[in-house]
């Protein structure tokens, strides 16, 4: 039996995430920094794809945006 290979639909580079969300690089890293007042534990985390390379799962970024929209609409 072959092992199942499950790949995300698409992985994004940092610049693609910044463009998709229309945010700055510093704000992006603040969302990931536990010591920042802008920290968001629900913000999509990077995945390592190499020694000095990370990517972001596109669907996780989209899901995060949709959750923000739902929060807004629930208010």
TrEMBL record:
InterPro entries: AlpA, Prophage_regulatory_activator
Domain of life the protein comes from: Bacteria
UniProt-listed Pfam families: Phage_AlpA (PF05930)
PANTHER family in the record: DNA-BINDING TRANSCRIPTIONAL ACTIVATOR ALPA (PTHR36154:SF1)
Name the record gives this protein: AlpA family transcriptional regulator
């Amino acid at each position: 039996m072959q092992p199942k290979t499950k790949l995300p639909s698409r992985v994004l580079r940092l610049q693609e995430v910044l463009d998709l969300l229309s945010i700055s690089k510093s704000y992006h890293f603040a969302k990931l920094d536990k010591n920042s007042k802008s920290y968001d534990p629900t913000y999509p985390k990077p995945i390592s794809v190499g020694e000095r390379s990370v990517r972001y799962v596109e669907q996780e970024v989209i899901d995060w945006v949709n959750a923000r929209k739902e929060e807004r609409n629930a208010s």
